[in-house]
Amino acid sequence: MVTTYKSLNSSAATKGKKLSAETATLSYKMDYEPSFLRTLFSLILVSSLLDCVLSEVDAFPDTKTWFENLLPSTMCIQNASIESVYGIMFDAGSTGTRIHIYSFTQKYPDQLPELRKEIFESVKPGLSAYADIPEQGAETIRGLLEVAKDAVPSSHWKKTPVVLKATAGLRLLPEKKAQALLSEVKNVLEESPFLVPDNSVSIMNGTYEGILAWITVNFLTGQLYSQSKQTVGILDLGGASTQITFLPQSEETLEQSPLDFITSFKMFHTTYKLYTHSYLGLGLKAARLATLGAVETGAVDKQIFRSSCLPKNLEAVWEFGGVSYRYGGIENGESGFKSCYAEVLRIVAGKLHQVDEIKGSTFYAFSYYYDRAADTNLIDYGKGGILEVRDFERKAIEVCDHMEGFTSSSPFLCMDLSYITALLKEGFGFKINTPLQLTKKVNNVETSWSLGATFLMLQSLRISN
Ligand SMILES: Nc1nc2c(ncn2[C@@H]2O[C@H](COP(=O)(O)OP(=O)(O)O)[C@@H](O)[C@H]2O)c(=O)[nH]1
Ligand SMILES: [Ca+2]
């Protein structure tokens, strides 16, 4: 049994910092403490339930009932005198592609496997940057598969499933281009020695992102099996889309929310009705494009997109989704927080559904919320921390009103912080003193949908040794 936490290459914090700094690749290996194996056991249990019902999401996009009576027939990872089970999950995000290689051990034949180790590596840019050269996009997957070949013993290759789920970057592409990319990727997976299930390469429904991450976080924090059922909401800010997911306490929320914002499921004899929504185009980088006014026009030769959120004398080129945009500040014009905030406000104003009760709730926030808070020392990169919405605002004012002395690695820092402030305050309608728990990992497990998705994959395939 793994008894100590250790980071094999270097500290996760240092590696994570690289991710924030948007470097090309990073990798780390880590073992997990046994203290939360019970939690992971439970998570696997939930995933076994999830597996059989996720397909219902598309069929009944309004209110769904999940998990009902599923437990006995789905507890299928058993009867094994097992050493290791592996699962490979690709997260094809809008800003990068990541491979998560999880290994599990099964100690006793009648027990579900326990997560033992995760190996992670990523490349930038994301698949959508290869929209016109899909073969090259697929080559990035081939490269990452080499990591999997090193990580998984060759004796296990054939029974180790590999799945790729794409998120907002591909959702935003024209259907034909997205399909061409997915088809090239599928070819590459099929050429690999791993097990390639049906539907192994797909664009994930935005609802799944929120729900899988919500279940992951609430299991890892012990909320779902505690008596109090004090669950926490989650906020994910990706490059191209953003998700909000929480368990409403008030009937009013359930009654007044649009039908497709509410998803219900039964788990451990409790029915949960979650509020979840994914806003496509409101991720951090998509919001930059919108603020620059480049969404409608696209990148036109020689055109420079200007914003008061950028240093006045700046002129540079920014690439997103495989397109290059020239951008800069407004020389002899406005700059600073006040004018910048007015710009970013236009991106969120009237675009989001607001719920009164979130004002008093606790939310876990990760991805770009975490990265930008860490970049500006609002939180420690390794540890995370609790912030209030007004901390983002305070930092936005500080950065935006001192852009002349700008030395930051990202010229977009003022715009990003202002956007995060506007999204939280005016978009979702949080109060300035709403606490946010900035978290990258809970018990050393990434706060992302990919672990949950891996459990689903294993369970749906009845993978065991
Ligand atoms: N906690 C966590 N964050 C991640 C992981 N992979 C990517 N991110 C964060 O996700 C953000 C980028 O979002 P991305 O997935 O590319 O865009 P999306 O397609 O709109 O979701 C950045 O803040 C990354 O740091 C991960 O494994 N764990
Ligand atoms: Ca993401």
Compile the SSE list and pairings:
Layout: H1 12-20, E1 26-31, H2 37-51, H3 55-59, H4 71-74, E2 85-92, E3 97-105, E4 114-123, H5 134-151, E5 162-166, H6 168-171, H7 175-191, E6 201-203, H8 206-220, E7 233-237, E8 241-246, H9 251-256, E9 262-267, E10 270-280, H10 284-292, H11 294-297, E11 304-306, E12 315-320, E13 323-328, H12 337-348, E14 363-367, H13 368-375, E15 385-388, H14 389-400, H15 413-428, E16 435-438, E17 441-442, E18 445-446, H16 449-461
Parallel strand pairs: 2-5, 5-6, 7-14, 11-13, 14-16
Antiparallel strand pairs: 1-4, 2-3, 3-4, 7-8, 8-10, 9-10, 12-13, 15-16, 17-18
The protein binds guanosine-5'-diphosphate (GDP) and calcium ion.
Calcium ion binds at residues 93, 167, 238.
Account of the 3D structure:
- There is one protein chain.
- The chain has 465 residues and is of the alpha/beta class.
- It has two domains: 12-61 and 69-207 and 443-461, ATPase, nucleotide binding domain (Nucleotidyltransferase, domain 5, 2-Layer Sandwich), CATH 3.30.420.40; 284-351 and 385-438, no CATH class.
- Helices cover 36% and strands 22% of the residues.
- It has 16 helices and 18 strands.
- The protein has a seven-stranded mixed beta sheet with strand order 9-10-8-7-14-16-15. A six-stranded mixed beta sheet has the order 1-4-3-2-5-6, with helices on both faces.
- A hairpin with a 2-residue loop joins strand 12 and strand 13 (323-328).
- Helix 5 runs parallel beside helix 7.
- The protein is globular and about 65 Å long.
- The two termini are 18 Å apart.
- Guanosine-5'-diphosphate binds next to helix 6, strand 14 and helix 13.
